[in-house]
Amino acid sequence: MTPDVAQTKTSRRPRLELDRITKRYGKVTAVDDVSLSLAEGEFLTFLGQSGSGKTTVLKIIAGFETCDDGAVRIAGTDMARKPPRDRDIGMVFQNYALFPHMSVADNIAYGLRRRKWPAERRRARVRQMLELVRLAELGGRSPRELSGGQQQRVALARALACEPQLLLMDEPLGALDRALRLDLEQEIRRIHRSTGCSVVYVTHDRDEALALSDRIAVFHAGRVVGLDEPAQLYERPPTGYVARLLTDANLAELPDGTALRGDVADIVLGGRTVRFRSTATRTAGARLAVPRTSISLQPQHEGCLTVEARVDDVVFLGEHARIDLDTTVLGSLIAHVPMHQTSDRIIGETLRIHIDPARCQVVI
Ligand code: ADP
Ligand code: MG
């Protein structure tokens, strides 16, 4: 094999593979048969509620925790016998975990020193990292002289300094207030683009997951229940759980007489049969996911489903208003409409609302 071919083969291998990982703590199955892979340079987010197993998987990848079943491979190499320090992984946690007695620059240089980089090269790298996270002037400070957001930038610089094969981040913005969170989220996007590092990112915040990720793995009770690009998961949630978690979609009961036909469902609504996409394999327990933004007070296009609804409440939320509706055919629905299209004078009125069936889906 020529070196060129070998090179191509290596770079095509996934950076990280999780192969049927299971972890139990006594009777609790914290991680239940999780398989996924991360391409080189990819930004993958684990999104899920507290206790869904995200951190445990991250610890297993890093080698801080062993799994009961399954394998972790990094760039094709099985990690079973590798201690954490030999895995070539950078990590950032929620609570900065900087060394308080070292300067910012020494914190960033820590891993480089351990790897015995010569002083000159080390200094150049620290400078480069400080510039990357826009803290060029602050290398001499102590961590306690920095704000929370700045400390998290230093943690990021420290994690990236050795050019790890993999960067793991566990709720890194969790301790910051909203403005700082949005700010640092932008920074993380920029740094990921400019370094091309491969990232596994953990969060329970869906907006963060949607804004940052190439792909999102949705965790629920130790399992991955959805894995796709953000737009795809958002518009085509595989289950009702994912629809709720990602979009707060309405999940309406299916009326009697609903017929599932492969990947479509025919539903009789107000005397008319309407065809929806479907990922459900049975009608028992299935629901119609109706995104809040698929409902309009103004007529949309011809294919729209028009139904009568009583307006129970209108709440202004900034750019859009939330409207609580009561319909005869689909029960209670919540709509999000642009603010300029509504007013609270409609509370108590019965009016016609328009639902775009192309944005709805039958799910289990
Ligand atoms: P997440 O990061 O999604 O909030 P975790 O991975 O921390 O979830 O936890 C998953 C489940 O495993 C939870 O039920 C948690 O209580 C349990 N768990 C995690 N670590 C331990 C541990 N060291 N001992 C016992 N149970 C644990
Ligand atoms: Mg966690």
Describe this structure in a few short sentences.
This protein has helices at residues 3-12, 54-62, 104-114, 119-132, 148-160, 178-195, 206-212, 230-235, 240-247, and strands at residues 16-25, 28-38, 43-48, 69-74, 77-78, 89-92, 166-170, 199-203, 215-220, 223-228, 250-253, 259-261, 264-269, 272-278, 287-290, 295-296, 305-316, 320-327, 331-338, 350-355, 361-363.
Describe this structure in words.
It is a single chain. It is built from nine helices and 21 strands. It has helices spanning 3-12, 54-62, 104-114, 119-132, 148-160, 178-195, 206-212, 230-235, 240-247; strands spanning 16-25, 28-38, 43-48, 69-74, 77-78, 89-92, 166-170, 199-203, 215-220, 223-228, 250-253, 259-261, 264-269, 272-278, 287-290, 295-296, 305-316, 320-327, 331-338, 350-355, 361-363. The strands form four sheets. A six-stranded mixed beta sheet has the order 6-7-8-3-9-10, with helices on both faces. The longest helix has 18 residues, at 178-195. Mean pLDDT is 93; it is low at 1-10. With 364 residues, the chain is of the alpha+beta class. Helix 4 crosses helix 5. It is elongated, with a radius of gyration of 25 Å. It has two domains: 3-240, P-loop containing nucleotide triphosphate hydrolases (Rossmann fold, 3-Layer(aba) Sandwich); 248-363, no CATH class. 26% of the residues lie in helices and 34% in strands. The chain binds adenosine-5'-diphosphate (ADP) and magnesium ion (MG). Magnesium ion is lined by residues 54-55.
Question: Superfamily at the CATH H level of the largest domain?
Answer: P-loop containing nucleotide triphosphate hydrolases
Order of helices and strands: HEEEHEEEHHHEHEHEEHHEEEEEEEEEEE
CATH topology of the largest domain: Rossmann fold
Question: What is the share of helical residues?
Answer: 25-40%
Termini separation: 49 Å
